[in-house]
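User: Second chain of the day. Same drill as before.
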Amino acid sequence: MATPEEAKLHQFLQWLELNRAELRGCRIKYSESSKGFGIFSSNHASDGILLVVPLDLAITPMSVLQDPLLGPECRAMFEEGEVDDRLLITLFLTVEHLRENSSWKPYFDMLPTTFGNPLWFSEDELLELKGTTLYRAAQLQKKTLQSLFDEKVKRLATKLLTLDGHPERDVKFEDFLWANSIFWSRALNIPFPRCYIFPMDSEGQDSDISSKIVNSATQTNGCGGLSNGESAKVPEYDALQDKVASAASISQGEIVWVEGLVPGIDFCNHDFKAAATWEVDGTGATTGVPFSMYLLSAGENPSLIEKEISISYGNKGNEELLYLYGFVMNDNPDDYLMVIYLTNN
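Assistant: Same format as last time:
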């Protein structure tokens, strides 16, 4: 009989296949309790491409606004200034995680339910950090998130759940805290071709809301995506032809960096010596899948079978790793003392 982890993984792999993700030289499996699921090599990929995920599967501000059920209301919230791009994604994660019939359920079921970052510490555990910059930062962060939830998120999330026919669903602070931790521990700064993520209007101009998100996205460096709605399927290949033609001729100045989650890719754990890197293939020339993100082996030699495939989360000290991701590394070569300048504004 399958274990709960095996059952979740089976459903998730079917979901990835439905959405045209391709595990070419790797497999996803449960790693350990402290890491959850991870990505492991399964066979030698001659071109080094281990995993390919269509960017239609990415959760980004624009994909949220295009969601058939929640998109129109989220768009109104964004235009009225009630949410910015990051809060938009966090709000979407909060609501979709609570929806029983969410098309994202196979993905959400694979994600951790608790975290090791200080936001999830008990009072006694938090006191262990007393005397460090992290202690005060964690206290203020949780206070800020609690205020944001009480003053805005609970109301907005309840409003969105009403669209799903569940106005009685009680949205708790822990639901928002979960979504916030998912975003900050798994989001990537993704280089999208502008022509792909921001469609033009009939006069060849960006829509006003697209321009707002462009301005927001290009001003942030980020940390470190399902066709939205009920179908959970990516667009047919024919619908990508014009986008591919445009992407083939774009310049670096037409790349827009947008924060988002890419299911599958985000199961790579961190290591100092990364076994892989991720790249974006705009035209499909590298992977055969237009507008996709792929995991590329960083080694010259074939990967060992069943070796965990890690990526680097960046040169981060242990305070930063604990603050963002909830873990620390022994003998961290990038460890340093983090000094945080905090204001009450």
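The beta strands are 22-23, 26-32, 36-41, 49-54, 188-193, 255-260, 276-281, 292-297.

User: Great, on to the next one.
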